[in-house]
Write a structure and sequence with these properties.
The structure is a homodimer. By secondary structure, chain A is α/β, with parallel strands linked by helices. Chain A contains 13 helices and twelve strands. The structure holds a DNA duplex (16 and 16 nucleotides). Chains A, B: One of its GO terms (molecular function) is transcription cis-regulatory region binding.
Chain lengths: ~350, ~350
DNA sequence: GTGAAAGCGCTAACAT
DNA sequence: ATGTTAGCGCTTTCAC
């Protein structure tokens, strides 16, 4: 493996000159630069980023911290899309992406911030973490620049990107209201997700604005899981047959809800309308296809990367980025006929 | 950021002793070790892996080279599953994962092997590359240890993990044969995928063993894309209405095929049986759900990581790993009634 | 059992 | 425009 030392020797110059030539500094004679470049090509030189990072004290890498990279997380393409967006951005800017995951069967009691510091990542993107996760506080407390996906924390070195979940939820519920539904249930995620709180808030606001009293017994918890949602919805509809529409805080739960409704022998959308949230891949392939509130996860990943670099380079105007959601009407919602 | 030097000073020992103590060498007094550990905790020390890697000449990182991390690749959860498996393995063994993707809108004419050498990854996993991709040859030629997913190349430093695609294809076709189908069409991927060749081979073998002449005009090309498959199947069935079953080299194409069949006003499975390959997430959610040959991509990722480490540590018995496939019968295939 | 010193490959003052 | 030198934080002979 050739080093700049080898090149220096072969080109008859000092290592400094080689370094400067290769890094495009202006204070080097064009002739010598050409020669150095020629030699380095000939010797098939690749710079050692480890050495460079060591002395420069920055590694041009960003860490992606994901928690719970489980089978489950493959169902929504959420994490993957965020990764794709982030990857796209980092490729454009020359940053490399290193993946950190505590998804280990055994020990690895190393904390996220330790991981980040050891690997000397310049910054981190954090995704899929719960609000009560100890790692969250830890990372935020450390001085590692980072941006969070869907968790609103701001500081000198911390930013976040999310969508307006209250508004998104209102769009969903308003859609149902416009279709004439009045008895609208909600399947929420779990309390440790920031987005759940907001999506509930939007639900309540929308009902209130329509002068419909919200009934707490109609808001159930699906833990963001398909099976859990199916189970809960089944019970709910059995005891409350007057419900005509269900708003779910995630598409996966909406799919669970669809199963429950079918299991009860009811027809979607004629007897029960269902609307989801996320617009995951599955949604458009379901029968009936699922009406939902779309989020652009790819963009979230991309914007998260962008903000992180801005923070790193101290030119972030804002540490907060709100992306748009949009209503996608498909087959699972229809006018209320009751 | 504290270094071993700081610890040495604080503990009143030399850096050598600190290094040895922290790395668990035996030739260090237990008392001093305890003290050193205490001090390093107190100073919130994190080792600098960059420096360590530089001197040790190994980075404990493996690179994941993916090509075409597109919107499309989100449809099958294939890449994600491989990533998950690989991540699981590397987490268990303390290796970190860095993601390389040429998925860049602009320049980045840097080659994979350059990327690998610059970042000093110890080895690489290559996934989703076509057989005619110039990168492929390049990586194989370089001396970087690597393991390929679904491309059978072996050398001193190169291994691969795949499934028995001929056998898998035969399982699929035999299933249709057992259901009494005789007029079985095939939708293949593209010629630059090694697996396509094998899956075609299996198709032909199965037919031959059943004494059914294979008809080349019944083998069409779907380029592994849903829309392409839909289009091709639509044309095929129009001109060959005697076909009763279609075997597709991927689930995504099978889904395209399903759309085409429905568009022709035919019923699945009563008039046309369809079988796919892969068992992607969508398959079980389709209506009707899709019969398919399942591959375990998670396991492929895991095994690829495992083999890579074995190659790195010079204790690989074999540079080839064949995983099992299995037939999953769902609703899209049924006895032939014609 | 512990320390001094060299060196991994690179960049960056500071000369010249 | 180029070279000398120091040093990034760590591991590793080789002495003692």
């Amino acid at each position: 493996m050739t080093t700049i030392k080898d090149i220096a020797k072969a080109a008859g110059v000092s290592v400094t000159t080689v370094s400067r030539a290769l890094n495009g500094y202006s204070d080097v004679n064009e002739k010598t630069r050409e020669k150095i470049i020629a030699v380095s090509k000939q010797l098939n030189y690749s710079p050692n980023t480890l050495a460079r990072s060591l002395v420069m004290k920055k590694s041009k890498t960003i860490g992606l911290l994901v928690s719970g990279m489980t089978k489950q997380s493959g169902k929504d393409n959420l994490l993957f899309e965020v990764l794709r967006g982030l990857n796209q951005f980092s490729a454009e800017t020359g940053y490399d992406l290193v993946l950190f995951s505590t998804n280990s069967t055994k020990q690895r009691e190393k904390t996220y911030s330790q991981l980040c510091r050891e690997r000397r990542v310049d910054g981190a993107i954090i995704q899929g973490i719960k609000t009560d996760d100890p790692y969250l506080q830890e990372v935020v407390d450390s001085d590692i620049p980072c941006v969070l996906v869907d968790i609103p924390i701001e500081s000198e070195t911390v930013g976040y990107v999310t969508t307006d979940n209250v508004l998104g939820a209102k769009k969903a519920v308003n859609h149902l209201l416009e279709l004439g539904h009045r008895n609208i249930a909600m399947v929420n995620g779990h309390e440790f997700a920031f987005v759940s709180q907001k999506r509930l808030e939007g639900y309540e606001q929308a009902l209130q604005e329509a002068n419909i009293p919200s009934r707490t017994e109609w808001v159930i918890n699906g833990a963001f899981e398909e099976e859990q949602a199916e189970h809960q919805v089944y019970q709910l509809l059995k005891t409350h047959p007057d419900i005509t529409a269900i708003y779910c805080a995630s598409d996966l739960m909406a799919i669970g809800a669809m199963k429950a409704v079918k299991r009860l022998g009811l027809c979607i959308p004629n007897q029960i309308s269902i609307i989801g949230y996320d617009d995951i891949l599955l949604s458009s392939y379901m029968t009936p296809s699922l009406t939902t509130i779309a989020q652009n996860f790819y963009e979230m990943g991309f914007e998260a990367g962008k903000m992180l670099i801005e923070i790193l380079e101290d030119k972030a105007k804002s540490h907060r980025k709100l992306l748009e959601t949009r209503l996608i009407v498909r087959e699972s919602t229809i006018k209320n006929h009751t």
